[in-house]
Amino acid sequence: EDDRKLFVGGLSWETTVKDLKEFFGKFGEVVSCTLKTDLETRRSRGFAFVVFNRKDVINAVLETEEELKLHGHKIEPKRANPRTGSRKIFVGRVDPACGEEDIKEYFKQFGKVEKVDLPFDKIKDQRRAFVFVEFDSEEAVKKVLAKEKHVLNGQEADIKKALPTQGPGGRGSNRGGRGRGGWNQGWGNGGYGNGGYGNYYGNY
C-alpha cells in the first residue's frame, strides 16, 4: 500500500481522523487514515498518513492548484516514504530495572528473539530507558506491532519498528515543538528524526 499512502504534515492539534477522511475524500476513496499522537498526552503530533484505494489519487492531491487548508492550517502533503523490512524493534519507556532475560521472556511469545541491545548512558552511568529487540524474522515484528498494548515490568512500553540505519546507543535531539513544525522534527531523516529515532532518544 506504500504507493497509495500520503504523508500529511502541518496539521492542527484539533484535526481528527474524521476530518482528514472528509477532507481527502473529495480527491478519492480513503481506505484508512492514521493520525500520529503523543504516547503520554494522546495529543496529535501534527502529522498523519492517509491511504487511498488507488495510487493515482496521490497525484491528484499533489497536483491540485487549490491551497490545502484544514482548521486554518496550511497542510503539507507528500508521498510517504516506503518502509523497508526490518527484524528489529525499538522499545521505549522501559524501566532500567527490567533485565535482558525479562525482556526476552516477554517478546519470545511473538517469535525467536536473537538479540537484545541495552543502550547505556556513560554520562549518567546508567542504562537508558529504551532497548532494541531483534527477532529471527520480519513476521515476528509484525506480530508485535499488531498488538495494541505492551506492558513490561508494570509499565506500558512505546514500540516502533526500528529502521535498518539504526543502531543502539545513538543519541538524538530533544523533541521539537508540537503542532505545526512538530511533525517536521518527528519525521526527519530515516523516518523519525536523525538516525531513525532521534527524537525518541531525547526522551529516554
From TrEMBL:
Short name of any one Pfam family annotated for the protein: RRM_1
GO biological process, one term: regulation of gene expression
Cellular location(s): Nucleus
Molecular function GO labels: RNA binding
Keyword Nucleus: yes
Record keywords: Nucleus, RNA-binding
GO cellular component, one term: nucleoplasm
RRM domain location: 4-96, 87-164
Transmembrane segments: none
Keyword Nucleus assigned: yes
SUPFAM superfamilies named in the record: RNA-binding domain, RBD
Superkingdom of the source species: Eukaryota
Location, primary (coarse class): nucleus
Comp. bias regions, Gly residues: 167-188
Annotated stretches, region: Disordered: 161-188
Protein name stated in the entry: RRM domain-containing protein
Organism: Lottia gigantea (Giant owl limpet)
Lineage, broadest ranks: Eukaryota, Metazoa, Spiralia, Lophotrochozoa, Mollusca
